[in-house]
Design goal:
Length: about 260
């Protein structure tokens, strides 16, 4: 197992930065970074951004110095490289996520202010907050878990229309499509049985805010969710921190000050 770091040559936020990677294991990478006090918010999906003033510490702790080509090659050869669009931020790769139908997939989580191309998107989810910053959650008996409102696209509807419809069906709240702000996405691999051969492998995530304090949630009769509540950020974590997508919620609502895109 080898940890590699390139010299600090990448400018952002008035500093120079390095990229710290493992050629074998993200678990090894996280453990190494934690041992040096490098915060998890510096993780970019397949590497840590390390500020120039910590470069010597990283090398002294055992990381080998490499040029950027060696760093990228190590990620590619290990299979740990997280392909992403320019400007997107990798948050986490979650292995072997299981679903109620018995299937499973690896899921890459990203923050991004740019919506994904619609042909790739099979579903949408909305982090819905009120004016005080509380979160709307719904309970799905099929998945036996709490989560943000959302669901699969129907027919030829747009992704935004998909998100607006799901929020209305599950909470009774009406949103305007322009009020939805893209904040991230979940990318599934391998392709799941939900769209065989279609190439649809992305769940689009939006943020939206209602202009009142905890308006009453009134889902449509017959909606599959069975409970609906406004909760604080702390309560949101208590109910959902064990779920595979939780690192994305943390990244959206606690933006990093360490690291760069």
């Amino acid at each position: 197992m080898t940890l590699l770091v390139d010299p600090p040559r990448w400018p952002a936020y008035g500093r120079l930065w390095s990229h710290l990677v493992s050629d074998t294991s993200l678990e090894e990478l996280h453990a190494f970074a934690a041992g040096l006090g490098i915060p998890r918010r510096g993780f970019e999906g397949d590497h840590y951004d390390v500020p120039e003033e910590r470069f010597a510490d990283v090398v002294a702790a055992g990381a080998q110095v490499s040029d950027i080509r060696g760093v990228v090659d190590a990620l590619r050869h290990s299979g740990l490289r997280m392909a992403k669009r320019k400007g997107d931020r990798g948050v986490a790769r979650v292995r072997g996520v299981g679903f109620p139908d018995g299937t499973s997939a690896d899921v890459d989580l990203f923050t991004s202010a740019r919506p994904y191309a619609e042909p790739r998107v099979f579903a949408a989810m909305v982090f819905l907050t009120d004016v005080a910053g509380d979160h709307a959650l719904v309970y799905s008996p099929r998945r036996a878990e709490w989560g943000a409102p959302g669901g699969w696209r129907e027919g030829s509807e747009s992704v935004r229309r998909n998100a607006v419809r799901e929020v209305h069906e599950e909470t009774g709240l009406s949103l305007d499509e322009p009020s939805l702000l893209a904040c991230g996405y979940e990318r599934f691999a391998p392709l799941g049985p939900w769209r065989p051969g279609s190439g649809s492998d992305v769940l689009q995530v939006f943020r939206a805010e209602v202009t009142r304090r905890r308006p009453r949630l009134r889902p449509h009769p017959g909606d599959a969710t069975t409970a609906h509540e406004w909760v604080s950020w702390e309560e949101f974590g208590e109910r959902c921190a064990h779920l595979f997508w939780w690192p994305l919620a943390e990244a959206v609502f606690d933006p990093p000050t360490w690291g760069h895109a």
